[in-house]
Amino acid sequence: MPGTIVDDVELIDAGHGGGTPPPAGGDDDGDSSGSRRPVPRRAYFTALQLGLAAIVMFFMALASSYIVRKGLGVDWQSTRLPRVLWFNTAILLASSVTIVVARKKLHGGEREAFQSWWWVTTGLGLLFLAGQIIAWRQLAAAGMLLATNPSSSFFYLLTAAHGAHLAGGILALFYVMFRTWSRSRITQATAAELTSIYWHFMDGLWIFLFALLTLGR
Amino acid sequence: MVTHENGGGHGHHQPPSGFIRKWIFSIDHKVIGVQYLLLALFSVFVGMALSLLMRLHLAWPTAHFSIFKGGQMTPEQYLALMTMHGTIMVFMVLTTAPQSGFGNYFLPIQIGAADMAFPVLNMLSFWTTFVSLVVMISAFFVAGGAPIGGWTSYPTLSALGEIVGPGQGAGETLWIVGLAIFCGASLMGALNFITTLIDLRTKGMTLGRLPLTCWTWFVTAILGLLAFGVLLAACILLLLDRLAGTSFFIPGGLVVTDQVITWHKGGSPLLWQHLFWFFGHPEVYIAILPGMGVASHLLSTFSRKPVFGYRAMVGAVCGIGFLGFCVWGHHMFVSGMSPYSAFAFSILTMTIGVPSAIKTFNWLGTIWGGKIQFNCAMLFALGFVSLFVSGGLSGLFLAQPALDLYLHDAYFVVAHFHLIMGVAAIFGMFAGLYFWFPKMFGRFLHEGIGKVHFWLTFIGVYAIFMPMHFLGLAGNPRRYSEMTAGPFLQALQPVHVFISIAAFITIGAQLIFLFNFIWSVFAGKDAKEENPWHATTLEWSIPSPPPHDNFGGLEPVVYHGPYEFSVPGAADDYIPQHLAPNLVRKA
C-alpha cells in the first residue's frame, strides 16, 4: 500500500500512538488498576452535576404533572398538610448546617470532631425520614390515602420520590464513614464534598417540593 | 502489549483474567460496547421476526398460520406484535447500538482515553439494559401475552388493566417495568459518556478537534440525560394508576365493554401524551444523531477530503439537539390542542429542518470533487444521506397541522419514521460496522457479500416504505391488522402484498449480513495493518484489536484536527491526528 513503509518509520519516531507517559500524581493511589491514567478529580464533580440535572428533570416532570392536574378541573380537594412537615423541614435544614461543620472539621484535621458531626448529620437525615413516615401515618389516619384524591396522590408521590433520593444520600453518608479510603481512587475529603453537594441539593429540592405542596395544597 | 521503560512510576495495568471477568462482567469499554452491539443484534432479529409476522398477516389476512391458536391471527395478536416490534426496535436497537454500542467502544479511544470515566458504572449500565430486555420479552410469556397499546402505550388503554384486552394485565405491567429499568440504564450510560467527554480528553484534543462521531455521542448523551428522567416519571405515574388505584391519567365516566369504571376519575390521558412525547421526540434524535456522526466521518474519510464546514456541522448537531426538546407537540396535533399551540410547534418543527439541511448540504459538499472509494462503509454512508433526505422530507409535510389532521395515524407517518429511524439510522450502524469491524476484530467484513447486502437492502427498503406514502395519502389507517373493512381499503390490498414481498426479500438480505458478520469474525480477511483505511482519528493508531488499555499506558498527544485529508503541501493524502508536525512528510 502506498506510504506504508514511511508510515512505519513515522510511527516508530512518534512513539506508538504518540505521546508521553501519563502525569504522576492525582488522586490515584496506584493500586492494580493504577497504570491507566487516573480519572481526574473534577470528573466526579462533573458526574454529580449531571446526575443532579437528571434528577431535576425527573422532579420537574412530576411537578408539572401536579400543576397540570391541579388546573384541570373543579375536583381538586386540598390536602391538609401535617404540621410535622415543618419540623422535618427544620431538621433537614439543620443537617445541611451540620454537614458543613463536619467538612470544616475534616479540613482542619480534627478527625474525631468530623466523625461526630458527620454522625449528627446522618442522624438528622434518618430523623427526617422518620418524620416523613409520621406525616404519612397522620394523613392515613385522617383518611387520606394514596388513591383518595389527586392532591393526596401527589403528596405521597412527591414525598416518596424525594425520600427515596434522600435515602440514597444517607447511604452515601454511611459510605463516607465506613469505606477504607486508603484503597480508593479519591480521598475521603473529596467524597465528603461530593456527598455534601448532593445533600444540599436534596435539602433545596425538599424546600421546592414543600413550597409546591403548600401553595398547591 | 507494548512495554516501555519510561513508565512514569506506575505499575503495569493487569488485564482481567478468567472468563467471567474478561467477557461477562467486564469493565472494559470495548467489551461492553460489543455486548451492547450483540444485544442490539439479537433484538433487531427479534424485531424483524415480529414485523415478518405482521406483514404476512397484512398481505394475506385469511391465511392459516399454525403458530396461532385456531390458525388465525386475531387483531389483538397483531397489535401485540406491533407493540413489541416498535418497543424492541426503538429501545433495544436504535437507542443501544449507535450510542452505547459504537459509542462505548470508540468514544474513549477517539479522545485518547484508556477507558470511560466510570468503568464499573458502565458495566452496570449494560447489565441493567440486559435485565430490562429480559423483563420486556417476558411479557410474551405471561398470561394474556404481550401488551397491545403500541410502543407509545397511551392511557386509558394502558392504564385500566386486563379489562381492556389481552396483554393489558401482566404483559403491560412488565412492559412498563422493563421500560423503567431501561430508563435507569440509559441515565447511567449518559452520565458516563458526558463526563468522559468533558474530563478525559487527552492532551491536544480540544473540543474543536473532536471527531464528529464524538460530537454526536456527546449531544446524544445530553439528550438522554435530560429526557429519560421524564419517561421514568411517566412510567411511575402509569404504574400507580394500574396498581395503586390513582387516577393521574384516567378520567371518570369510562365504560369498558359494558362495565362502568367507577373507581377512577379526574385524570388526563393528555398528560401522558405530553410526558411521553417530551421524552419521545428527543428519543428519536438520540436514534439518528450518532448515525449522522458516522456518516460525516465516513464521507470525509472515503472522499479523502475534510468535512465541509466542520463548525457548522457541530452547530447543527447542537441545534438539532436543543430544538428536539421544543417540538413534542407535533405528535399531538390531533389531540384537540389550541391551534396557536399547534402553530408554535409547527414552526419550531420546521426550524429543525434548517440544521438538518445544513448537514445534508455539507455532506454533499464533503464528497464533491473528492476521490471517492466506494467500499461498503462508504456505500452505507451514502445510503444514509439518501434515506435521511427521503425520510426527513416527509417530516416537513407532517409538521403542517392542517395536513397532519389527515395524515395522523395513517401510513404516511409509518413511512416517515421507518425511513428515518428504521432505515437511515440502521444504515448509519451498518456503515459504522463495516468501517470499524477491522479495528474491533482484526479482520475485514467480506466486501463482495457486503455489496450484495447493501444493494438488496437499499433497494428493498425503498420498495417497502415508499409505497406507504401513497397508502397514507389514500387514507390507509395505521395499526389496523387487516385492510378488509370496506372497498376503499380493499382496493389498497395489492400495495400491501407488494410491500410484504419486498419486506421478505429485505429481511432475507439481512441473513446474508448475519452470515457475513459471523463468518468474518472467525475467518475474514486479516486486517493486520493498524490503519487500513488511512484514516486520521486516534483509533487507527493502535493495534487491531486494541489492547486492554487502548494506548499501552501512554497518553497520546493530538496535534491536528480530525479530518486532515488532502492537505496542500503534505505528501500523503491524510495526516493522522497524533502525528507530530515535524514528522508530517512534505510534498
CATH topology grouping of chain A: Four Helix Bundle (Hemerythrin (Met), subunit A)
So, the CATH homologous superfamily of the domain at 326-523 in chain B?
Answer: Cytochrome c oxidase-like, subunit I domain
Helical percentage of chain B: 55-70%
Q: Beta-sheet strand percentage of chain A?
A: under 5%
Number of strands of chain B: 2
Helix-strand pattern of chain A: HHHHHH
Number of helices of chain A: 6
Helix content of chain A: over 70%
CATH topological fold name of the domain at 326-523 in chain B: Cytochrome C Oxidase, Chain A
Core attributes:
heterodimer; A: 217 residues; mainly alpha; Four Helix Bundle (Hemerythrin (Met), subunit A); 0% strand; disordered N terminus; B: 587 residues; Cytochrome C Oxidase, Chain A; two-stranded antiparallel ribbon; 16 helices; 2 strands; 60% helix
Please describe the topology of this protein.
The complex is a heterodimer of chains A (217) and B (587).
Chain A: H1 4-14, H2 41-70, H3 84-107, H4 111-141, H5 150-178, H6 188-216
Chain B: H1 19-24, H2 29-59, H3 75-94, H4 96-110, H5 119-137, H6 170-199, H7 212-243, E1 255-256, E2 259-260, H8 269-301, H9 310-323, H10 339-367, H11 376-398, H12 401-407, H13 411-441, H14 447-473, H15 487-490, H16 493-523
Antiparallel strand pairs in B: 1-2
Question: What does this 3D model show about the protein?
Answer:
The complex is a heterodimer of chains A (217) and B (587). Chain A is mainly α. Chain A has a single domain, classed as Up-down Bundle (Four Helix Bundle (Hemerythrin (Met), subunit A)), CATH 1.20.120. Chain A has six helices and no strands. In chain A, helix 2 runs parallel beside helix 6, helix 3 packs antiparallel against helix 6 and helix 5 runs antiparallel to helix 6. Chain A is elongated and about 60 Å long. The N and C termini of chain A lie far apart (75 Å). Chain B starts with 18 loop residues before the first helix and ends in a 64-residue tail after the last helix. Among the domains of chain B are: 198 residues, Cytochrome C Oxidase, Chain A; 62 residues, no CATH class. In chain B, strands 1-2 form a two-stranded antiparallel ribbon. Chain B has 16 helices and two strands. With 587 residues, chain B is an all-alpha fold. The N terminus of chain B is likely disordered. At the A-B interface, helix 1, helix 2 and helix 5 of A face helix 6, helix 7 and helix 8 of B.
